[in-house]
């Protein structure tokens, strides 16, 4: 029995999916797999688990449905927010009936019936129990996003439901013929539900690759209000953030109440735009109050008749502030300022431009001119705006009586002055509490502006959004499988994404979407939909996972969209280099051990090499410390460099800001910051390895009393350091849980000490923090392990900081923030090749030729001969 809070009952009534509960449950009862599609916000994520729960799934009372209800999300943000919401709707505490689990966080009880998790978590669970016996239903949410993990899960789960059905039938047969089955061995069929925000489901249902019987597709009609799309006439290529800023401000000043959702590409853009908007909001409020008071006074005085333009000008021309306000430094058309809210009886239709391909400005002009004809007060306002005109001449014929003017003045007082902006950021790396702020209540006078990355496209429905500002961009990671070169690029979104984004505006009423690109760009340049992740990323982890699950021929696995054969071959080559596969492509014991670690095979190879080598050493006394350090180094190599992040973040702001004073302040701040980072780099620097440098910084960070202060003082990126610290703890737990020494000791379990021993030695050495904790031979051990993990990413110096990397034609470079920059060793391995203005090696570690001989075997063949032949490492 479920008793929901009254307010929930009220809002649920309005969700279209609630009307379809019966139809959905019937389909689920009749079929092993069901696809549900419905626009974002229709209630899929929050309601379907509740339907199942109410139907007895996840309840001990029904033996056939006693397994729990699992729901996966591609994004951590969505897991937390929706679990919390569902618990609230069911009137229970989070962690009781409804729980969740993400990589760093978990709140789930023994008796939980509903479990929200990331797709990565379920993928790990399926590795340990392929039949997922704990579950009676699995919901794969946001299947349309085609995340790598969800795609793999879809393929696997189609097999799982088949096998569970077969087992179940066998059991029933044996029961009928008098056999017995203990309750632990009892198996029930599994239900699979795919949920999608789009109707593009053909990859899931075509060709019987996944499902022998095509599952029913249930479409949830959405009460989607019309959203008027406004294309920009021109497409600003570089400063789309500036455009977004302008658009938000002009919406705020002119258009009626309603939240604004802005789509940008990354955290830096979000923060930058938020800051700018907050600043403008403050200025606007001050100015509006001033003007209000002035106009009110004028009205009260009755001194309307002979308005002295100069007087008005002086009244507002009080220095830089005002300058900012009237002629915004961002080149805003001054005539835009302070319009809309004067007009009480505008016609909604006229206010917005509905003709797709017109420039907004045209409409704005028309809109502004409609004011001038009415009355003196408007004339005054027009005059005021007219101040900004170059010629400064506005004819304001006084036509109304003083009484009427006063009345209008009253109205103006009540309707004018665009309120404060409530500016909130939203991106994946934001702390959970900050993420949930978009759902909080706020004051009526405020206008909500959410500046978001792609997370707001489908995963979260933010209430009260009426306007969407779409930059049309998204940040994508491009990967060149041949060279291993990665680059983050800001790219155009797909047409499908664009319509998803626009849809966010029509949830609570008719809305408007302002696209900061032209319709020509939209139809000629945008792809129809974005390609599934699996076709874009290296699949070494996928292949290792498959091999460890006894799926020998990865190319035969039923992926919704299979990866390129060449990508599979490349992954196999890499896994052979890491000795996870033998020359016949079979999983080695090392590979098996690696597959237990939920991380890139390179990282697990490095960790396991450290463990192996430490077991071989005689000196056990410091082994726990070295292991702790190894784990920190893996954490360091898994995340962006916190030194570089901080620096680049500052640099980015520079080019964008046209404001002079801000620029100067910024300049000074940046300079200070740069100095700080330089000093920090020197302090933590390990000239033989970037990974060890960052590991040492992490070390110092963890024992510092005030993490935030420590990062501030040392120019480290706080969020990255926090994440790294958590990752390190988690990896350490993995080392001890993944390789239990008990059963089959495969040589990879840690027997020198306990997890507490490792943590203790880590803490002891840091407390005497001025001394560098590692000895030279220990550093070399870690260097060799890193070499083993990146054995195919070797580079040899050609001159200065220029290197030649195996299998890469063009020269590659040490990054100026690398700790190897001053020593520039002859040979090194790098963890990433990132193409910015030129290819930079990140995560570099000096290596010795003998390590290469040992670990890189015949892999390291340089693509072109050196100009100046040097004694060259040969693989033989
Ligand atoms: P879908 O999964 O179909 O996109 P959801 O189930 O996420 O839809 O959302 C249904 C409704 O519940 C939406 O109106 C949304 O705004 C609301 N909602 C979802 N999560 C929360 C939350 N954490 N707080 C408040 N409202 C929420
Ligand atoms: Mg959803």
TrEMBL record:
GO molecular function: ATP binding; hydrolase activity; RNA binding; RNA helicase activity
UniProt KW keywords: ATP-binding, Helicase, Hydrolase, Nucleotide-binding
Hydrolase as UniProt keyword: yes
GO-annotated cellular components: nucleolus
Start and end residues of each Helicase C-terminal domain: 379-550
Residue stretches making up the Helicase ATP-binding domain: 25-217
Region annotated Disordered, chain positions: 320-359, 650-684
EC number: 3.6.4.13
Swiss-Prot/TrEMBL catalytic activity: ATP + H2O = ADP + phosphate + H(+)
Bias kind Acidic residues: ranges: 341-359
One of the GO biological process terms: maturation of SSU-rRNA from tricistronic rRNA transcript (SSU-rRNA, 5.8S rRNA, LSU-rRNA)
Recorded family membership: Belongs to the DEAD box helicase family. DEAH subfamily.
Designated name of the protein: RNA helicase
Lineage: Eukaryota, Viridiplantae, Streptophyta, Embryophyta, Tracheophyta
Boundaries of the shown chain within the full protein: 25 to 900 of 1039
């Amino acid at each position: 029995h479920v008793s929901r809070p009254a307010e929930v009952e009220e809002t649920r009534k309005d969700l279209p999916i609630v009307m379809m509960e019966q139809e959905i449950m019937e389909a689920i009862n009749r079929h092993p797999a069901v696809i549900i599609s419905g626009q974002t916000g229709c209630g899929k994520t929050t309601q379907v688990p509740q339907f199942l729960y109410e139907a007895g799934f996840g309840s001990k009372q029904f033996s056939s449905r006693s397994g729990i209800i699992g729901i996966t999300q591609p994004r951590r943000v969505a897991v937390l927010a929706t679990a919390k919401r569902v618990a609230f709707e069911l009137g229970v505490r989070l962690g009781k009936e409804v729980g969740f689990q993400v990589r760093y966080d978990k709140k789930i009880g023994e008796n939980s019936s509903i479990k929200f998790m990331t797709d990565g978590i379920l993928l790990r669970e399926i590795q340990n129990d392929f039949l997922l016996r704990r579950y009676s239903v699995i919901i794969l949410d946001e299947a349309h996003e085609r995340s790598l993990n969800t795609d793999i899960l879809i393929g696997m789960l189609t097999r799982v439901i088949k096998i569970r059905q077969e087992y179940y039938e066998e059991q029933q047969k044996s029961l009928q013929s008098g056999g017995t089955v203990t309750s632990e061995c009892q198996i029930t069929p599994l239900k699979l539900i795919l949920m999608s925000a789009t109707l593009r489901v053909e990859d899931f249902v075509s060709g019987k690759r996944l499902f022998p019987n095509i599952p029913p597709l249930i479409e949830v009609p959405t009460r989607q209000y019309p959203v008027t799309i406004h294309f920009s006439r021109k497409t600003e290529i570089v400063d789309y953030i500036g455009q977004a800023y302008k658009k938000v401000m002009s919406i705020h000043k002119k258009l009626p109440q309603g939240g604004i959702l802005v789509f940008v590409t990354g955290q830096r853009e979000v923060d930058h735009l938020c800051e700018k908007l907050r600043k403008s909001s403050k200025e606007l409020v001050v100015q509006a109050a001033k003007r209000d008071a002035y106009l009110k006074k004028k009205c009260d005085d009755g001194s309307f008749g002979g308005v002295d333009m100069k007087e008005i000008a002086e009244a507002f021309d009080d220095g830089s502030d005002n300058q900012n306000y009237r002629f915004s430094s961002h080149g805003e058309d001054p005539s835009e300022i302070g319009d809309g809210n004067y007009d009480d009886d505008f016609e909604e239709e006229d206010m917005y431009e509905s003709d797709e391909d017109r420039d907004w400005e045209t409409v704005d002009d028309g809109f502004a001119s409609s004011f001038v004809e009415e009355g003196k007060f408007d004339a005054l306002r027009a005059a005021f705006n007219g101040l900004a005109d170059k010629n400064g001449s506005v004819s304001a014929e006084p036509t109304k009586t003083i009484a009427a003017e006063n009345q209008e003045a009253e109205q103006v007082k009540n309707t004018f002055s665009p309120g404060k902006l409530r500016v909130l950021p939203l991106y994946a790396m934001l702390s959970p509490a900050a993420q949930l702020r978009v759902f909080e209540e706020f004051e009526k006078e405020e206008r909500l502006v959410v500046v978001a990355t792609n997370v707001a496209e489908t995963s979260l429905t933010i209430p009260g959004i009426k306007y969407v500002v779409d930059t049309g961009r998204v940040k994508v990671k491009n990967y060149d499988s041949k060279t291993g070169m990665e680059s983050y690029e800001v790219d155009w979104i797909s047409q499908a994404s664009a319509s998803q984004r626009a849809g966010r505006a029509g949830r609570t009423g008719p809305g408007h979407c302002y696209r900061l690109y032209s319709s020509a760009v939209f139809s000629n340049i945008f792809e129809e939909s974005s390609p599934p992740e699996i076709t874009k990323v290296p699949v070494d982890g996928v292949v290792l996972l498959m091999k460890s699950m006894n799926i020998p021929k990865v190319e035969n696995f039923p992926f919704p969209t299979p990866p390129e054969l060449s990508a599979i071959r490349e992954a196999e080559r890499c896994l052979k280099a890491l000795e996870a596969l033998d020359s016949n492509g079979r999983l080695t014991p090392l590979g098996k051990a690696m597959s237990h670690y939920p991380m890139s095979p390179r990282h697990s190879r490095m960790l396991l090499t450290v463990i192996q080598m430490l077991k071989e050493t005689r000196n056990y006394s410091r082994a726990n410390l070295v292991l702790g350090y190894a784990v920190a180094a893996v954490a360091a190599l898994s995340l962006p460099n916190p030194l570089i992040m901080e620096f680049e973040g500052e640099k980015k702001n520079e080019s964008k800001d046209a404001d002079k004073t801000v620029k100067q302040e910024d300049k000074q701040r940046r300079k200070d910051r740069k100095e700080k980072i330089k000093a920090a780099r020197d302090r933590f620097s390990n000239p033989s390895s970037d990974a060890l440098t960052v590991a040492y910084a992490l070390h110092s960070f963890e024992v510092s009393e005030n993490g935030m202060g420590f990062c501030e003082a040392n120019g480290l990126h706080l969020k990255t350091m926090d994440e790294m610290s958590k990752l390190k703890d988690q990896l350490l737990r993995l080392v001890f849980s993944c390789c239990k020494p008990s059963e089959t000791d495969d040589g990879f379990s840690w027997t020198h000490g306990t997890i507490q021993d490792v943590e203790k030695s880590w803490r002891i050495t840091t407390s005497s923090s001025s001394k560098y904790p590692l000895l030279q031979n220990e550093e070399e051990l870690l260097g060799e392990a890193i070499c083993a993990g990146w054995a195919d990413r070797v580079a040899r110096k050609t001159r200065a900081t220029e290197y030649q990397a195996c299998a890469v034609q063009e020269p590659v470079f040490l990054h100026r923030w690398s700790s190897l920059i001053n020593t520039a060793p002859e040979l090194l391995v790098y963890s990433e090749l990132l193409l910015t203005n030129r290819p930079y090696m990140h995560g570099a570690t000096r290596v010795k030729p003998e390590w290469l001989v040992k670990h890189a075997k015949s892999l390291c063949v340089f693509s072109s001969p050196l100009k100046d032949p040097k004694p060259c490492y040969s693989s033989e």
